[in-house]
Amino acid sequence: MSYLPLAPPGTTPLRVLAIAGSDSGGGAGMQADVRTCALLGVHALCAVTAVTVQNSVGVRGFHKVPGNVIAAQIEVVCHDIGLQAAKTGMLASAEIIETVADSWRTHGPDAPLVVDPVCASMHGDPLLDSGGLETLRAELFPLATLVTPNLHEVRLLVDIEVVDSDSQRDAARALHALGPQWALVKGGHLQGSVTSTDLLFDGTDFHEFESPRVDTVHDHGAGDTLAAATACALAHGYAVPDAVAFAKGWVTECLRASYPLGHGHGPVSPLFRLGT
Ligand code: PXL
Protein backbone atom coordinates (compact mmCIF):
# COMPACT_ATOMS: atom_id res chain seq x y z
CA MET A 1 0.00 0.00 0.00
CA SER A 2 1.21 3.54 -0.55
CA TYR A 3 1.18 5.96 2.34
CA LEU A 4 0.78 9.72 2.62
CA PRO A 5 3.41 12.12 1.26
CA LEU A 6 5.91 13.20 3.92
CA ALA A 7 7.01 16.78 4.59
CA PRO A 8 10.76 17.17 3.98
CA PRO A 9 12.82 17.10 7.22
CA GLY A 10 12.88 20.54 8.87
CA THR A 11 9.63 21.70 7.27
CA THR A 12 6.28 21.92 9.04
CA PRO A 13 4.09 18.87 8.46
CA LEU A 14 0.30 18.97 8.16
CA ARG A 15 -1.50 19.02 11.52
CA VAL A 16 -4.44 17.01 12.84
CA LEU A 17 -6.09 17.94 16.14
CA ALA A 18 -7.06 14.93 18.25
CA ILE A 19 -9.71 15.68 20.88
CA ALA A 20 -9.63 12.50 22.92
CA GLY A 21 -9.12 10.69 26.19
CA SER A 22 -5.79 9.37 27.46
CA ASP A 23 -5.34 5.59 27.80
CA SER A 24 -2.82 4.76 30.54
CA GLY A 25 -2.22 1.41 28.83
CA GLY A 26 -1.05 3.29 25.75
CA GLY A 27 -3.22 1.25 23.37
CA ALA A 28 -6.25 3.32 22.38
CA GLY A 29 -7.50 6.89 22.67
CA MET A 30 -5.11 9.81 22.40
CA GLN A 31 -2.07 7.53 22.37
CA ALA A 32 -3.40 5.63 19.32
CA ASP A 33 -4.22 8.93 17.62
CA VAL A 34 -0.76 10.40 18.19
CA ARG A 35 0.95 7.18 17.08
CA THR A 36 -1.16 7.01 13.93
CA CYS A 37 -0.47 10.62 13.02
CA ALA A 38 3.26 10.28 13.72
CA LEU A 39 3.69 7.14 11.64
CA LEU A 40 1.77 8.80 8.80
CA GLY A 41 4.01 11.87 8.95
CA VAL A 42 1.36 14.19 10.38
CA HIS A 43 1.85 16.36 13.48
CA ALA A 44 -0.80 15.61 16.13
CA LEU A 45 -2.21 18.45 18.21
CA CYS A 46 -3.83 17.19 21.42
CA ALA A 47 -6.84 18.35 23.42
CA VAL A 48 -7.17 15.84 26.26
CA THR A 49 -10.78 15.37 27.41
CA ALA A 50 -10.38 12.72 30.09
CA VAL A 51 -7.72 10.65 31.79
CA THR A 52 -8.64 6.97 31.91
CA VAL A 53 -7.18 4.51 34.36
CA GLN A 54 -6.87 1.31 32.37
CA ASN A 55 -4.69 -1.56 31.32
CA SER A 56 -5.07 -4.38 28.83
CA VAL A 57 -7.89 -6.02 30.80
CA GLY A 58 -10.21 -3.07 31.33
CA VAL A 59 -10.96 0.50 32.35
CA ARG A 60 -10.96 1.03 36.12
CA GLY A 61 -12.29 4.57 35.88
CA PHE A 62 -11.69 8.00 34.43
CA HIS A 63 -11.24 11.61 35.46
CA LYS A 64 -12.84 14.27 33.28
CA VAL A 65 -10.77 17.30 32.34
CA PRO A 66 -12.63 20.54 33.23
CA GLY A 67 -14.47 22.05 30.26
CA ASN A 68 -12.59 25.36 30.38
CA VAL A 69 -9.27 23.49 30.11
CA ILE A 70 -10.51 21.49 27.11
CA ALA A 71 -11.79 24.65 25.41
CA ALA A 72 -8.48 26.41 26.08
CA GLN A 73 -6.44 23.55 24.58
CA ILE A 74 -8.50 23.76 21.39
CA GLU A 75 -8.35 27.56 21.26
CA VAL A 76 -4.60 27.94 21.71
CA VAL A 77 -3.60 25.40 19.08
CA CYS A 78 -6.15 26.68 16.56
CA HIS A 79 -4.90 30.24 16.95
CA ASP A 80 -1.16 29.69 16.99
CA ILE A 81 -0.48 26.50 15.06
CA GLY A 82 -3.41 25.90 12.75
CA LEU A 83 -4.63 22.56 11.50
CA GLN A 84 -5.97 20.84 8.40
CA ALA A 85 -8.34 18.32 10.07
CA ALA A 86 -9.58 17.24 13.49
CA LYS A 87 -11.00 14.13 15.08
CA THR A 88 -12.88 13.46 18.28
CA GLY A 89 -12.73 10.27 20.35
CA MET A 90 -13.74 9.79 23.99
CA LEU A 91 -15.68 12.84 25.17
CA ALA A 92 -16.91 11.39 28.48
CA SER A 93 -19.98 13.59 29.15
CA ALA A 94 -22.72 15.76 27.65
CA GLU A 95 -21.02 18.86 29.11
CA ILE A 96 -17.71 18.03 27.41
CA ILE A 97 -19.46 17.38 24.10
CA GLU A 98 -21.14 20.80 24.35
CA THR A 99 -17.80 22.42 25.15
CA VAL A 100 -16.09 20.75 22.18
CA ALA A 101 -18.93 21.68 19.81
CA ASP A 102 -18.84 25.30 21.00
CA SER A 103 -15.04 25.46 20.71
CA TRP A 104 -15.05 23.97 17.23
CA ARG A 105 -17.78 26.39 16.08
CA THR A 106 -15.87 29.36 17.55
CA HIS A 107 -12.20 28.53 16.94
CA GLY A 108 -12.14 25.62 14.50
CA PRO A 109 -10.93 26.35 11.00
CA ASP A 110 -12.99 25.45 7.95
CA ALA A 111 -11.45 21.97 8.03
CA PRO A 112 -12.86 18.44 8.09
CA LEU A 113 -13.99 17.05 11.47
CA VAL A 114 -14.15 13.29 12.02
CA VAL A 115 -16.38 12.30 14.94
CA ASP A 116 -15.73 8.81 16.34
CA PRO A 117 -18.66 8.48 18.76
CA VAL A 118 -16.85 6.53 21.47
CA CYS A 119 -19.34 5.16 24.01
CA ALA A 120 -17.60 2.21 25.66
CA SER A 121 -14.33 0.32 25.73
CA MET A 122 -13.93 -3.05 24.01
CA HIS A 123 -14.53 -4.64 27.41
CA GLY A 124 -17.89 -2.84 27.71
CA ASP A 125 -16.72 -0.28 30.27
CA PRO A 126 -18.64 2.98 29.74
CA LEU A 127 -16.60 5.91 28.37
CA LEU A 128 -19.58 8.28 27.97
CA ASP A 129 -22.06 9.33 30.70
CA SER A 130 -25.74 8.72 30.11
CA GLY A 131 -27.06 11.92 28.51
CA GLY A 132 -23.99 12.10 26.30
CA LEU A 133 -25.69 10.28 23.44
CA GLU A 134 -28.37 12.90 22.93
CA THR A 135 -25.79 15.70 22.97
CA LEU A 136 -23.60 13.82 20.49
CA ARG A 137 -26.55 13.51 18.12
CA ALA A 138 -27.81 17.07 18.55
CA GLU A 139 -24.62 19.13 18.93
CA LEU A 140 -21.67 17.34 17.38
CA PHE A 141 -23.07 15.24 14.54
CA PRO A 142 -24.29 18.30 12.60
CA LEU A 143 -20.71 19.71 12.69
CA ALA A 144 -19.13 16.47 11.50
CA THR A 145 -17.72 15.81 8.06
CA LEU A 146 -17.80 12.11 8.92
CA VAL A 147 -19.07 9.99 11.82
CA THR A 148 -17.56 6.52 12.36
CA PRO A 149 -19.62 4.40 14.79
CA ASN A 150 -19.12 0.69 15.30
CA LEU A 151 -22.18 -1.56 15.48
CA HIS A 152 -22.55 -1.21 19.23
CA GLU A 153 -22.53 2.59 18.91
CA VAL A 154 -24.98 2.38 15.97
CA ARG A 155 -27.43 0.53 18.21
CA LEU A 156 -27.14 3.18 20.91
CA LEU A 157 -27.31 6.13 18.51
CA VAL A 158 -30.11 5.13 16.13
CA ASP A 159 -31.55 2.00 17.72
CA ILE A 160 -30.85 -0.24 14.73
CA GLU A 161 -29.44 -3.74 15.10
CA VAL A 162 -27.17 -4.28 12.11
CA VAL A 163 -27.24 -7.93 11.11
CA ASP A 164 -26.82 -7.79 7.32
CA SER A 165 -26.21 -5.39 4.45
CA ASP A 166 -29.86 -4.16 4.40
CA SER A 167 -29.84 -3.16 8.05
CA GLN A 168 -26.35 -1.66 7.56
CA ARG A 169 -27.88 0.59 4.87
CA ASP A 170 -30.81 1.50 7.14
CA ALA A 171 -28.33 2.46 9.85
CA ALA A 172 -26.27 4.58 7.45
CA ARG A 173 -29.44 6.44 6.38
CA ALA A 174 -30.53 7.02 9.98
CA LEU A 175 -27.08 8.26 11.01
CA HIS A 176 -26.81 10.56 8.00
CA ALA A 177 -30.22 12.04 8.89
CA LEU A 178 -28.67 13.29 12.16
CA GLY A 179 -26.63 15.85 10.21
CA PRO A 180 -23.09 14.70 9.37
CA GLN A 181 -21.99 15.06 5.75
CA TRP A 182 -21.01 11.38 5.67
CA ALA A 183 -21.77 8.38 7.88
CA LEU A 184 -19.55 5.29 8.02
CA VAL A 185 -21.11 2.18 9.53
CA LYS A 186 -18.20 -0.07 10.44
CA GLY A 187 -18.98 -3.75 9.96
CA GLY A 188 -16.00 -5.10 11.90
CA HIS A 189 -18.16 -6.46 14.71
CA LEU A 190 -20.49 -8.41 12.36
CA GLN A 191 -20.02 -12.08 13.15
CA GLY A 192 -19.27 -14.90 10.81
CA SER A 193 -17.72 -13.33 7.75
CA VAL A 194 -14.18 -13.69 6.43
CA THR A 195 -14.25 -10.06 5.36
CA SER A 196 -15.15 -6.88 7.17
CA THR A 197 -17.26 -4.41 5.19
CA ASP A 198 -17.68 -0.77 6.15
CA LEU A 199 -20.48 1.21 4.51
CA LEU A 200 -20.17 4.93 3.75
CA PHE A 201 -23.16 7.14 2.87
CA ASP A 202 -23.49 10.83 2.00
CA GLY A 203 -27.26 10.96 1.59
CA THR A 204 -27.04 9.94 -2.07
CA ASP A 205 -24.44 7.27 -2.75
CA PHE A 206 -23.31 4.22 -0.84
CA HIS A 207 -19.66 3.18 -0.93
CA GLU A 208 -18.54 -0.20 0.39
CA PHE A 209 -15.07 -0.90 1.75
CA GLU A 210 -14.15 -4.51 2.19
CA SER A 211 -11.02 -5.89 3.80
CA PRO A 212 -9.94 -9.32 4.97
CA ARG A 213 -10.86 -9.91 8.60
CA VAL A 214 -7.66 -10.15 10.64
CA ASP A 215 -7.98 -12.96 13.18
CA THR A 216 -6.53 -11.44 16.35
CA VAL A 217 -7.64 -10.58 19.88
CA HIS A 218 -5.11 -7.73 19.87
CA ASP A 219 -7.34 -5.08 18.33
CA HIS A 220 -7.38 -2.43 21.06
CA GLY A 221 -7.48 1.02 19.45
CA ALA A 222 -8.62 -0.13 16.00
CA GLY A 223 -11.50 2.36 15.82
CA ASP A 224 -9.37 5.26 17.00
CA THR A 225 -6.69 4.32 14.46
CA LEU A 226 -9.21 4.22 11.61
CA ALA A 227 -10.65 7.64 12.51
CA ALA A 228 -7.20 9.20 13.01
CA ALA A 229 -5.86 7.83 9.72
CA THR A 230 -8.98 9.13 7.94
CA ALA A 231 -8.36 12.57 9.45
CA CYS A 232 -4.73 12.45 8.26
CA ALA A 233 -5.81 11.65 4.70
CA LEU A 234 -8.47 14.39 4.84
CA ALA A 235 -5.76 16.82 6.02
CA HIS A 236 -3.93 15.93 2.81
CA GLY A 237 -7.00 16.93 0.80
CA TYR A 238 -8.33 13.46 0.02
CA ALA A 239 -12.05 13.21 -0.75
CA VAL A 240 -13.93 11.40 2.03
CA PRO A 241 -14.34 8.02 0.19
CA ASP A 242 -10.62 8.03 -0.71
CA ALA A 243 -9.67 8.94 2.87
CA VAL A 244 -11.79 6.09 4.25
CA ALA A 245 -10.31 3.63 1.71
CA PHE A 246 -6.82 4.70 2.74
CA ALA A 247 -7.61 4.41 6.47
CA LYS A 248 -9.21 0.99 6.05
CA GLY A 249 -6.05 -0.32 4.38
CA TRP A 250 -3.96 1.29 7.11
CA VAL A 251 -5.92 -0.19 10.02
CA THR A 252 -5.82 -3.64 8.38
CA GLU A 253 -2.02 -3.43 8.31
CA CYS A 254 -1.99 -2.18 11.91
CA LEU A 255 -4.18 -5.16 12.93
CA ARG A 256 -1.74 -7.54 11.23
CA ALA A 257 1.10 -5.89 13.18
CA SER A 258 -0.76 -5.85 16.53
CA TYR A 259 1.00 -7.38 19.51
CA PRO A 260 0.25 -8.96 22.89
CA LEU A 261 0.46 -6.64 25.89
CA GLY A 262 -0.37 -7.41 29.51
CA HIS A 263 -2.92 -10.12 30.26
CA GLY A 264 -5.73 -8.93 27.99
CA HIS A 265 -6.03 -7.31 24.59
CA GLY A 266 -2.94 -5.79 23.00
CA PRO A 267 -3.05 -2.79 20.66
CA VAL A 268 -3.11 -2.45 16.90
CA SER A 269 0.26 -1.13 15.87
CA PRO A 270 1.63 1.19 13.19
CA LEU A 271 5.20 0.46 14.28
CA PHE A 272 5.73 -1.79 11.24
CA ARG A 273 6.31 1.48 9.39
CA LEU A 274 9.64 1.83 11.18
CA GLY A 275 10.96 -1.26 9.36
CA THR A 276 12.98 -4.04 10.95
O1 PXL B 1 -11.20 2.66 21.46
C1 PXL B 1 -12.06 3.58 22.03
C2 PXL B 1 -11.38 4.35 23.12
C3 PXL B 1 -11.18 5.69 22.96
N1 PXL B 1 -10.57 6.43 23.90
C4 PXL B 1 -10.13 5.89 25.03
C5 PXL B 1 -10.30 4.53 25.25
C6 PXL B 1 -10.95 3.74 24.28
C7 PXL B 1 -11.14 2.31 24.50
O2 PXL B 1 -10.79 1.74 25.50
O3 PXL B 1 -9.85 4.00 26.37
C8 PXL B 1 -9.47 6.74 26.05
TrEMBL record:
<dbReference type="GO" id="GO:0009228">
    <property type="term" value="P:thiamine biosynthetic process"/>
</dbReference>
<dbReference type="InterPro" id="IPR013749">
    <property type="entry name" value="PM/HMP-P_kinase-1"/>
</dbReference>
<comment type="pathway">
    <text>Cofactor biosynthesis; thiamine diphosphate biosynthesis; 4-amino-2-methyl-5-diphosphomethylpyrimidine from 5-amino-1-(5-phospho-D-ribosyl)imidazole: step 2/3.</text>
</comment>
<protein>
    <recommendedName>
        <fullName>Hydroxymethylpyrimidine/phosphomethylpyrimidine kinase</fullName>
        <ecNumber>2.7.1.49</ecNumber>
        <ecNumber>2.7.4.7</ecNumber>
    </recommendedName>
</protein>
<keyword id="KW-0784">Thiamine biosynthesis</keyword>
<dbReference type="GO" id="GO:0009229">
    <property type="term" value="P:thiamine diphosphate biosynthetic process"/>
</dbReference>
<dbReference type="GO" id="GO:0008972">
    <property type="term" value="F:phosphomethylpyrimidine kinase activity"/>
</dbReference>
<dbReference type="GO" id="GO:0005524">
    <property type="term" value="F:ATP binding"/>
</dbReference>
<keyword id="KW-0547">Nucleotide-binding</keyword>
<keyword id="KW-0067">ATP-binding</keyword>
<keyword id="KW-0418">Kinase</keyword>
<dbReference type="InterPro" id="IPR004399">
    <property type="entry name" value="HMP/HMP-P_kinase_dom"/>
</dbReference>
<comment type="function">
    <text>Catalyzes the phosphorylation of hydroxymethylpyrimidine phosphate (HMP-P) to HMP-PP, and of HMP to HMP-P.</text>
</comment>
<dbReference type="Pfam" id="PF08543">
    <property type="entry name" value="Phos_pyr_kin"/>
</dbReference>
<feature type="domain" description="Pyridoxamine kinase/Phosphomethylpyrimidine kinase">
    <location>
        <begin position="23"/>
        <end position="268"/>
    </location>
</feature>
<dbReference type="InterPro" id="IPR029056">
    <property type="entry name" value="Ribokinase-like"/>
</dbReference>
<keyword id="KW-0808">Transferase</keyword>
<dbReference type="GO" id="GO:0008902">
    <property type="term" value="F:hydroxymethylpyrimidine kinase activity"/>
</dbReference>
<comment type="pathway">
    <text>Cofactor biosynthesis; thiamine diphosphate biosynthesis; 4-amino-2-methyl-5-diphosphomethylpyrimidine from 5-amino-1-(5-phospho-D-ribosyl)imidazole: step 3/3.</text>
</comment>
<dbReference type="GO" id="GO:0005829">
    <property type="term" value="C:cytosol"/>
</dbReference>
